[in-house]
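hey so i finally got around to running the thing on that chain from the lab meeting. sorry it took forever, my laptop kept dying and i had to restart like 3 times. anyway pasting the input first so we r on the same page abt which one it is
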Amino acid sequence: MKLSKTEEQLMELIWNHEKVFLKDLVDSFPDPKPATTTIATLLKRMQDKGFVGYTLFGNSREYYPLVNKDDYFSKHMKGIIKNYFGNSTLQFASFFTTNSNMTASELEDLKKIIDQEIKRKEK
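ok and heres what got predicted. didnt touch it at all, straight out
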């Protein structure tokens, strides 16, 4: 299941805080801050989707992520590769390296990462 852009923004705050109360989430947004009811509605939708859980402390809820950030974005990237690059990681990598305005230094760093991964997989 996928989050909307606004839900992803809110989820990013939850991942950064690990455990957070509604008031702290609202305070984390830049001005103009969204209404507390808007954030509460988003949190409810995210609970229904299985992304967020909470612990009740009196009348307050402390929210925490149920989905790991790396797992979410890995699944999201796999969907992009499947839907836009014919399920070809090679086509994605080619597009990414030629269209991302990477510097020569960044490309060298990427090459080192690839070389390390090749060595790891050859073992």
